[in-house]
Amino acid sequence: MSPKRSLSVQDVARKRLLSVEDAARYLGLSPRTVYNGIAPKSKDPFPVQPKRYGRRRLFDIRDLDAFADSLSVEK
Questions:
Q1: For residue range 43-71, what is the model confidence (pLDDT) as tens digits?
Q2: Spatial distance between the Cα atoms of 64 and 66, rounded to a whole number of angstroms
Q3: Which ranges in 1-75 belong to alpha helices (H)?
């Protein structure tokens, strides 16, 4: 079995649905931050809800882009 290859941000940006790890890399966050935010009883829920495909949780890159665009810019 070959080791899991780490995707670059450019590789991640070409996919439509991203795993939790890829979504975190795309947003520049820790995967643990995303996992904690999508937990069922999270006190600070992640603003983008993942789609379910079987047991996998996948984020639509368009939803992630909309979330990133909605963040305010500090002046």
A1: 999 999 999 999 999 999 999 999 999 98
A2: 5
A3: 9-13, 20-27, 31-38, 61-70
Kindly state the DSSP code that residue 42 receives in the 8-state scheme: -
> 1 near 47, Cβ under 8 Å?
no
Given a contact cutoff of 8 angstroms between Cβ atoms, the answer to whether 18 and 57 are in contact is: no
Rounded to whole angstroms, what are the CA distances from 74 to 32, 42, 48, 71?
A: 25, 27, 22, 10
> Is 49 within the bounds of a domain?
yes
Task: Write out the residue range of the structural domain in which residue 46 sits.
Answer: 9-70
Number of domains making up the chain: 1
